[in-house]
């Protein structure tokens, strides 16, 4: 058994399709099929059930997947440790970030980290909160930037800051001169919000539930930048984290919400018992500094 067998097996398991997996690996489908067949022959059990054009893992495949991920993860951590013997002159760091934080804080962090450690390849992936936790837990991500505390008890968390959700309105909106608005006043206000799968939307829905009213949602968009740009052009009001509104954005106003004031905590996520990584520690240090500057600005 060779490492490529494990990588090919996991690619098929994740894609649930041989052709899609082959494309992601940049190999031909016959080559991929042959490698998986060799692995199944060596293990003495079928790993996949073929269903139409797709595949699904057998019970043996499910069991083997967990072990295969662990083996590759430990090898990657060992390689990262060896790379760091050069003093962060080379290496690779994978970071998962929730969308709102990725929109306003990560660009600054990436620029500073890359300038300080140009030899380290940085991979940043925007994911849902659950996606970040899964990635860190499985070892595909070295570090997560998400909401804390995490649902996964196998993760360590470090609080970075608390972010408050605010009402974001066009400059000429009737409420543009107000300092606060109660959530109960928003019952008839057309809102543009994120889809239900996003934690920001779940917080909005919860705030309206506590206020005893229903939100009048007329537009759903899955991009923070697109939502802010639409408000700039005189679109509907929205509710977003205050820190997600760029410092120099024009033609919009932010108004604090009360009754309740929705807020959440953002932090760093790491796998408990994970291999020490200097690159991860360095990125976390830059992240802490950027978060502190943002809070004080």
TrEMBL record:
Record-linked PROSITE patterns: HTH_LYSR
Family membership: Belongs to the LysR transcriptional regulatory family.
PANTHER family (UniProt xref): HTH-TYPE TRANSCRIPTIONAL REGULATOR YBHD
Domain of life: Bacteria
Gene3D superfamilies linked to this entry: 3.40.190.290, Winged helix-like DNA-binding domain superfamily/Winged helix DNA-binding domain
GO CC field: cytosol
Identification of the protein by name: Transcriptional regulator
Residues covered by the HTH lysR-type domain: 1-58
Keyword DNA-binding: yes
Protein keywords: DNA-binding, Transcription, Transcription regulation
GO molecular function, one term: DNA-binding transcription factor activity
Organism of this sequence: Singulisphaera acidiphila (strain ATCC BAA-1392 / DSM 18658 / VKM B-2454 / MOB10)
């Amino acid at each position: 058994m060779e490492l490529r067998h494990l990588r090919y097996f996991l690619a098929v398991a994740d894609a649930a399709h041989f052709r899609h997996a082959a494309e992601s690996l940049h190999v031909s489908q016959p080559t991929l099929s042959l490698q998986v067949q060799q692995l199944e022959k060596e293990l003495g059990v079928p790993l996949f059930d073929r269903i139409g054009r797709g595949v699904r893992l057998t019970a043996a495949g499910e069991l083997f997947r967990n072990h295969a991920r662990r083996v590759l993860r430990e090898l990657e951590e060992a390689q990262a440790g060896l790379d760091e013997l050069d003093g962060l002159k080379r290496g690779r760091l994978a970071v998962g970030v929730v969308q709102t934080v990725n929109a306003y804080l990560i660009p600054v962090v990436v620029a500073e980290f890359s300038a300080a450690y140009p030899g380290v390849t940085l991979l940043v992936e925007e994911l849902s909160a659950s996606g970040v936790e899964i990635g860190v837990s499985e070892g595909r991500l070295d570090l997560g930037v998400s909401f804390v505390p995490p649902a996964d008890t196998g993760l360590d968390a470090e609080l970075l800051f608390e972010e408050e959700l605010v009402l974001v309105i066009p400059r000429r909106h009737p409420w543009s001169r107000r300092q606060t608005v109660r959530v109960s006043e928003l019952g008839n206000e057309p809102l543009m919000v994120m889809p239900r799968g996003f934690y920001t939307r779940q917080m909005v829905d919860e705030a309206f539930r506590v206020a005893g009213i229903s939100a009048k949602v007329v537009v759903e968009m899955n991009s923070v930048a697109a939502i802010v740009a639409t408000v700039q052009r005189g679109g509907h009001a929205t509710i977003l984290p205050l820190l997600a509104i760029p410092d120099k954005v024009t033609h919009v106003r932010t108004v604090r919400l009360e009754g309740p004031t929705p807020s959440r905590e953002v932090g760093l996520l790491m796998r408990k018992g994970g291999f020490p990584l200097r690159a991860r520690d360095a990125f976390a240090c830059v992240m802490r500094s950027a978060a502190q500057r943002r809070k004080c600005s």
